[in-house]
Fold each of these.
Amino acid sequence: MTTEEKNILIEEDVVSVASQWQLMWWRFKKHKAALIATTIVILFYLIAIFAPFLASSNPNESNVPVAYLPPQTIKFFDGGIRPVVHEVIGSRDPETYKKVYTTDPNNKLPVKFFVDGYEWKLFGFIKTTKHLYAVEDKEGNIISPYLLGSDKQGRDLLARILIGTRLSLSIGLIGVTFSLILGIVLGGASGYYGGWIDTIVQRIIEITRSIPTIPLWIALGASVPRDWSVVKIYFAITIIISLFVWTDLGRVVRGRFLALREEDFVTAAKLAGASDRRIILRHMVPYFASHLIASTSLAIPFMIISETALSFLGLGLRPPAVSWGVLLQAAQNVQTVALYWWLTLPAVPVTIAVLAFNFMGDGLRDAADPYG
Amino acid sequence: MTQIDDQNNILEVNNLTKFFPIKSGFFKRVVGHVRAVDDVSFTLKQGETLGLVGESGCGKTTASRCVLRAIDPTSGQINFTTSNGNNVDMAALSNREIRPIRKEIQMIFQDPFSSLNARMTLLDIVGEPLLVNGMKNREERLERVSELLTLVGLRPEYMQRYPHAFSGGERQRIGIARALALNPRVVVADEPVSALDVSVQAQVINLLMDLQEQLKLTYLFVAHDLSVVKQISDRVAVMYVGKMVEIADTNKLFEKPLHPYTEALLNAVPVPDPRQRKTEKKHLSGEVANPANPPQGCYFNPRCPYVQDICKTTKPTLEEVKPGRFVSCHRAKELDLSGIIK
Amino acid sequence: MNDKEKLLSVEDLKIHFPTDEGIVKAVDGVSFDLEAGKTLGIVGESGCGKSTVGKGILNILERPGKIAGGNIFWNTDGNNVDLASIPPDSSTMRAIRGREIALVFQEPMTSFSPVHSVGNQIIEMIMLHKDMNKKEAKEWAMELFNMVGIPNASTRIKDYAHQFSGGLRQRAMIAMAISCEPKLLIADEPTTALDVTTQAQILDLLQELQEKHKMAMILITHNLGVVAEVCDDVAVMYLGRGAEQGPVDSIFHDSKHPYTKGLLESIPSINSAQGERLKSIVGSIPPPFNRPKGCTFHPRCPSFIKDVCDKHTPQYLPLNDVQRVSCFLHHDPKKEVE
């Protein structure tokens, strides 16, 4: 036997004993765009976890003297070894009373890494004051450069975008979890039992899907009491969005159940004497789990967009909560956008995240049935 | 009362009926019935192979699934002699009561792809009937599965592989191993070779015949391919639009059928020998009747070349016209029909 | 065979499907000739490439398939065209498709559009290829319906494909195929989806039409019974290559290739005794990638010659005037090219 033949044999054996998830992974790996997208998605969640570490200024701390500061840049080669940031001096234009900022190239503030700043909690319980970078001013105070500029109250936009990642992306995850539970329970009951349960669930789905979303959102969003806490509003919004998204997942689950009920291998299990529980858990669920994961990952970007849209309209999360949608509220008016263009920057992560999730979902969907 | 008259019979099906409701409209009202199996009776003798033949939609598959209680019959009796000598009417049992009997009647499926769960290894697939019937010890299962795989001509070393590593013929062997796991006495084979390539078909047919001899199995062999049925069956039962039209010993049926439909069916089979090309062609005209709206009288009358007035008004019944020969035709005794073997 | 009598002559046809996993050589060297008015059966099991040959002749291959070599000479009215060399969407090819060579598929349901009536689709086809106005085309379509045995032509012509039964749909498909009186009808498993009694009807119909219109026919099937009933000549294929071809009687009674012999022995015959064991070919058909080296049949062959069949690829050479075989039992391996 030549080595080439041996290699073929070994390769074949690996495939022969490969489980569904291995086959799926091999297939997914071939989808380059999906792989890149998955990396981006993972990066986003890492950012969400370590946001305060990356943001050296406190995103909620106002600093009115530097309101509407345009983005500052870090100069990497400006004399010394250390990267520096030029100091900015603010003044009022005597005619328009507009605040004008000028950089002073002679006044170099060195960038320092792993500095101590405001206190935050890693994973919610490990107290730390470390931050990735900051600059030190003449008096030795640690301050942060405004790399993406500041808002009306002089808060660091970059810090706010980073912190906003947490709400914007978690609303997708938590919302999808709600939808998944609703979808599996209602869709599953509908598909497995059929009959009148099926009819009722299907009518509910049809009615839900036929309601125009924006007006309903406005109504539901407006009905959330103004005096609720940030957390309460957050969950209310998540549930409102889930109420729409579950219908898709419910349909996927129902369709799979209906198709699988008639499959020969399910009949075979029944004839072998397997219980309903075993048939559902051992035979049916693994069969559509992969499809469900793919559908779920495609539902997340919809959630992110919905949250952004609702918050932008002022119906979703409200300050002091920080999400990408809330940040974009500041860019609602044309005049602001014209004068302070950097306020539209929160739209960039929204676009990237949504695209990444979509590509990842596409890849998962293609890989979901490795036997097809 | 359930009673099996003949001691040789392992299974007796009496007046089996399965109607599927046709639903329509928003409220899913029942507007009619498809008479998939319409008052069918037959018996299975211990150790024999009964071929159940007919064209698509004739109800042969539905009838066989009723015997397995994979679907619940509308009415009728399915009397089965269990291994401990009891007679039970399987049609009357609840889903719970049927479970202990399931292991005595097992099934082989047509499609070697959809009948195996692609997400399970051979060990789990073939071992599932053992596991759910109380063989909890993994070592014991491993041993039994390897025994079964050897029995059907597969290497036991392949146990950890998934079905996607096997060809259609090999998958069909896996399905057979699963069916035999619980030592059944009756095996219902639903078109077990029709999805396979010609060169592989023969292997599986031979295997089924060997296993029958070795394990004293009784087969209900559902098929549309008459040459395969001829090869494997001791007796043949022919169905047409949900009705049983003829039952006879294989050779007698092929030599001299008694029902005009059987005659037509036999003569339609192309013979793989150019020297036996049929000079005169006796082919049926028209289409198979709709089982939701069958014709008056004998269901075959619109296509029958020997039709008379009585056929259009009165339904014939299945009668034993000679010992062991059952036929459902008003003119069975007078017609002289031609078979295809001398 | 005189060259003038050949209507179609396929020489060393190769059809490849480049995929991510490698090139699938669906057809890898197939040759056959067909005389006008005759019927050629192409038989083989799954993966042998018989359907691909049928589609290749009309160059209607599914993506990413393409003709990778060989010739398909189409010889009518003194014109000799190589169908393999003209672009698949050229006007010459389009003119040949449907008008000179027509195709009947296994599953007629998907061959008709569900949103147009069957009659309209046939009328459209007639108007596209024949010089007829709508009225004439409609009359001709009704005549075709009568010809193929569809009852109540005048009402059925308005029906949609789903309103037809399997047998009637196949008749309608045949009506559409013969609407332009083609010189060659390629029937790809035309009866596989049908019951035996309907199959017999359709085969009768095809033979009747063939005689009446002096059509040649290529019948692609896996059913040796159908071949024995209908064909004049037979080509047997295995894994993309021609194994053997010859007149129907020689294939069934004097077969040369061990694969043909094995295939014939493994079909249950209506004449064999009940309970008798069948002879079968060992092993199974290998997957499309990773085909055996040398003669592709050698791992399953009972007459396998070590160091010959597994090392060299047999050529598809004529044995005499009418038979052709690709096997070292009949050709000296020394003469073979590596």
Amino acid sequence: MNNTANLIRLAVVLIVVLLLQVVVFDNLDFLGLCNPFIYVLFILVAPFGCPTWLLMLMAAGEGLIIDIASNTPGMHMAATILIAYLRPAVLRLVAFRSATYKEGDIPGSRGYGSLWFARYTLIIVAIHHLALFLIEQFDSFYLWSTLIRIVLSIVASTLLIILIERFAPATRGADD
Amino acid sequence: MNNFFQFLRRHTTTIIFIILEALALALVFTGNDYHRAAYLSSANVVTGSINRLTSSVGKYFALATANESLAEQNLALQQEVAALRAQLMAVPDSVWPDIPLQAQQPSLRYHAAKVIGSSTNRSRNMITIDRGAANGVKQDMAVINPQGVVGLVAAVSQHFALVLPIINTSSRLSVKIKRQNHRGQLLWDGMSPQRAQLSDIPEHATVDIGDTVITSGASAFFPEGLVVGTISAIEPDRNGGFFDIDIDLAVDYNAVYHVYLIENLAAQERNDLEKPASDE
């Protein structure tokens, strides 16, 4: 897939996940216990070989928009930059021994399997949420209640992201 | 020197990462100064408008509750008006000169606003309302709803404002126990949006579960006597000589739709008076 198509696709994904996050998921609050952050999907589906500095800049911008919408200055920005930085390492970690990532390809359940995508999503989401909750609650950290919230939020975000990735064509690129 | 450039080239990504993270964390640690950062919050035009749109969809689900609460408040006000009118009638004309009520300059002015965005599950919760500087909203106005004290206006943009509710770990509110005038400070520990903590009540005070806690009037922004909540648990503090008291908040933060802002017309004068005195 060429670069222009990839760029347009990424822009569409970004706008969709931002709107979904701010309009729908920021207003959902399951028993005050977990908030799903599905906007992480944008970082997940950037093409393989996307330069890490570029991914981090996009992550910073995305995080900042979420921060502005939810009155959490810098918090989502910090967590999202972190997963952008760690993404290449996570991709190496979840790689099959035989399969290789093709540069420009999109990390997705279609090309690499649902199980692969689930593992990849879970690790990235877990890093993101841990960082986010630690930054948010460092001054009022209550071990058990915070841990429960972190775990429930990781589960909710991971499941929702897998669902959205499954059914949103833009995240997968053109059908081949 | 060559080595240095080589080092830079090899670690470009990490260096960019550190710079970006430093920027983000700088925002975390300075951005809580809501006073200066209205445009960096949900009170800016774009997110404010999106929030208003979202809440205009969501509000239909909440209409029944909001209506009920407004009707209840209406009833209470009607009864108060009737009682005051009866009292006024009882006063002989010679004692009460014939001055129309409107001539009395009120020291408080109320503004109505609607909540368009709020959270209850973070440690620094905020509430966004649909009135701003253009509607006469100013920083530090007290925010109440029919149930009790909601919070304080923390930042104002042209058409929106950001409210710092009691359920924000940086909220501080001077309160007292209604029955006996012991003053304390109301804090929030970041746990339950239904419960806040009252400190500075000495152990020699007689407090009971169920006692009503009201604003003390020590702050110029909150008029005295607004309901904050009721005492739900009392524990003696181990070393300080003060009680650890839990308060059930009167306001249900999961259902705050209509709020009133209180503009204290005398507050400015009082602040001007108190400020030089406390600076010395």
Amino acid sequence: MAFFMDPEVLSSDKIMEVFYIVMGLMSIYAGVHNLRDRSNPSRYGTFVFWTLLGVVIAFGRWIPPMIDGLLIVIMVIPAIAQRVKPGKAAEPTDAEVEGNFRRIGQKVFIPALAIGVFAIAGALIPAIGALAGCCIGVFVSAIILWAFNRANTLAVFLGDSERLLSAMGPLCMLPMLLASLGAIFDAAGVGDVIARIVGGVIPAGNRTVGIIVFALGMMLFTMIMGNAFAAITVMTVGIGAPFVLSLGTDPAVVGILALTCGYCGTLLTPMAANFNIVPVAMLQMKDRMGVIKNQVLPAFVMIVVQIIYMLIAC
Amino acid sequence: MEYLVLLGIAVVIVGFALRLDSILIVFLAAIVTALLGNLGIDGFLTTLGESFVSNRSVALFIIILLVTGTLERNGLKQAAAELIGKAKGATPGIIIALYGVMRLVFAAFNVSFGGVAGFVRPIIMPMAVGAIEATGHKPDEDYVEQLKGMASGMENVAWFFGQVLFVGTSGAILVKTTLAPLGYDVDLLQLAIIEIPVALIAVGVTAAYYIIKDARLRRKFYGGESGVRKPDSVKEGE
């Protein structure tokens, strides 16, 4: 309670803390639901993962950091052991969806777009912030959906979110773990070591060379790893910070464009199987590289466009 | 040997390249780096706990899931199908390009219609093949194969570059939380605004490329008369 009363804490952080409790409870609900679901092949592992994740998200601020760390270690054990699985899902029937659509029609776009609108509105009001605005938008969206169709009760929202969360599985935690990995790299001094090594190869203090190496490095690293999120953590600490950002370039431009340079790599690699190989199977294509071949030209155009953008904007 | 702390990076690169379990890789890399960087077990747990809690914003997608499934239940995909279905009489290339534009606009609001499995296969591909048949031609297998590749490519380009326009997307939050310990504070709205020209160029270039490629393919497979609508009663090559 002291946290919410503290005048030193930003109001946007206080609002977010409330929403973190909501998110944590949603995750705990997924854990308990799966524990009670006898059709789930890994009830206990699934329960441990989602429940501990929920505890850390909801109450992590008030738990000593070392205990948080310990809870996270215990949480990922069932995930690594492939013991986090979805149970039976109560998917909506075609008849129900069709009936709802006939009643609501194109108006369903209103609650769908509400979240983004509120995120922008929140970003423009410093006391709220983009993240809290987005969360408020979620609740506005839910209320509009309920107004359209009274069958959308709290139980329906909770059930649907549990179904999607369970279906996404533990991999949805990867960005959070990668962000933590970045912090550990930083604490262990990885950035300094890379800066010293790369400094011998590319001339430090040369903004143009730094930007080009960072942009192409993001693309190539993403191609090798198949995941731009994994690449951005390593590359920003190792190349971005010492060779581009330290020269006084705009961290927002360089930071976010590096991510989309990584996406150019995602378009080119069979390692990003979900985007480039799974569709081949789904659409019953003959050429395994049939999707990637159609993405080569856009990827190369975009890497060039973004390097030029960074050079001009910085 | 101070270079030993780089072993963690090697673990990430080799691990992902070998397609090992992603969570296992990240965890191994974290432990290896922490121990070689002399953080010790205590330091590892404390840094992990602290950073995870301060990076909880990356889990924002969880609260969005509260409505995602229920939006689907109330006909979001059907509404999107009806919207794109208004493109009557368009060529396959134009249908794919229009899908890219629609996908981009909705991705900027973090609204998805189900990707290749949920939307391209059941809605976009039948529309594209229907457009070939509407001109009185039989869909050629190799031509349709190219259309499938283009539709998937449009899906990927529009989604990747569109979702970064959403203020609160995981990617932008990850960039923000990666820059924070390095001493750089960036604003999420600013990150989204920076990406607007990139997203427009990405979808514009890809859409134009596919429209041109499709026109070439139609000339190759159906000769110069492509795009000329034949009377509906005429059916060829059944």
